[in-house]
Design brief:
With about 350 residues, this protein is an alpha/beta fold. It has a domain at about 100-275: Alpha/beta knot (3-Layer(aba) Sandwich), CATH 3.40.1280.30. It is built from 12 helices and 10 strands. It has helices at about 5-30, 35, 40-55, 60-80, 90-95, 115-135, 150-155, 215-225, 250-260, 265-270, 285-300, 320-335, and strands at about 100-105, 140-145, 165-170, 185, 200-205, 230, 240, 245, 280, 315. The strands form 3 sheets. Strands 3-2-1-5-4-6 form a 6-stranded parallel β-sheet, sandwiched between helices. The chain is extended, with a radius of gyration of 34 Å. S-adenosyl-L-methionine-dependent guanine N(1)-methyltransferase that catalyzes the formation of N(1)-methylguanine at position 9 (m1G9) in tRNAs. Probably not able to catalyze formation of N(1)-methyladenine at position 9 (m1A9) in tRNAs. One of its GO terms (biological process) is tRNA N1-guanine methylation. This is tRNA methyltransferase 10 homolog A. It catalyses: guanosine(9) in tRNA + S-adenosyl-L-methionine = N(1)-methylguanosine(9) in tRNA + S-adenosyl-L-homocysteine + H(+).
Amino acid sequence: MSSEMVPAIIETSNVERKQDLSEDQEESQKPRLDEEFEPISKRQMKKLIKQKQWEEQRELRKQKRKEKRKRKQLERQCQLESNSDGNDRKRIRRDVVHSTLRLIIDCSFDSLMVLKDIKKLHKQIQRCYAENRRALHPVQFYLTSHGGQLKKNMDENDKGWVNWKDIHIKPEHYIEFIKKEDLIYLTSDSPNVLKELDESKAYVIGGLVDHNHQKGLTYKQASDHGIDHAQLPLGNFVKMNSRKVLAINHVFEIILEYLETRDWQEAFFTVLPQRKGAVPTDKTCESSLHDKTSARVEGGLDSDSSEEETSRNELDSPHEEEKQDKENSTESTVHSTP
């Protein structure tokens, strides 16, 4: 071996040694998965993949939003051009005739409810507000004794309530600004049965969701304040398989419907959910009204399942129910006699 080749071999061996050292250093600097990182689960892996897809489709979503806005803008423009008066919504609203009847939801039972029931009360109030805004004869809607848990829940979950229209929301009790002689408390425990609505009066609905625990509370409050009281005439028109208790929004909607039709039976069967199993007490018109009720329920008039949690606005008092059962048994006995 020549003397010229020896330095070349030495130099090559030095280069290889340096490469081996650098590879060892890089390998030592890499974190060991077993020591520093836990293995990624399938769920975490799916989340990472979804996040990556979300980021990749950001521009596509942006483009779709732009196209949707343009399409809606064109639709609105075409609709405005097709309407003879330029605004169909205003034309419809001009047909509305406001009622002078005052309908109050009494929220003074706030301390008797847990948060779960407060949320249900809030949802029922939202339904009442929406129905009143859509009604042909909207009432003068009052929300009284507004505060406590209910107000806090509305502030947190429905901040838009401060912009609600055609509603009077007051922290005061209704007795402070409405005359006693104008007030009628709607409670199932009352022996008085409503025959018709007096639009000069103010009707009070108890804002209490208690799963039937606080029996007689609304009747007691009306008596303590010296206020007139009455119950809806449901027993005269309807017989139900389920418990005879109505949600706050059901009472509210029945009154709105009665103001439009002036017919209690039609009001009850328009509003009552199909799950209540309501049938007319007058058997001669049972089939026609049942068909009408089914059609309306299929049209979306049935309320949400969460609204099945009801207030103390019961449909019928116990003694009225017993009286109705006796009448039915007597009638069946008479028909069965030869």
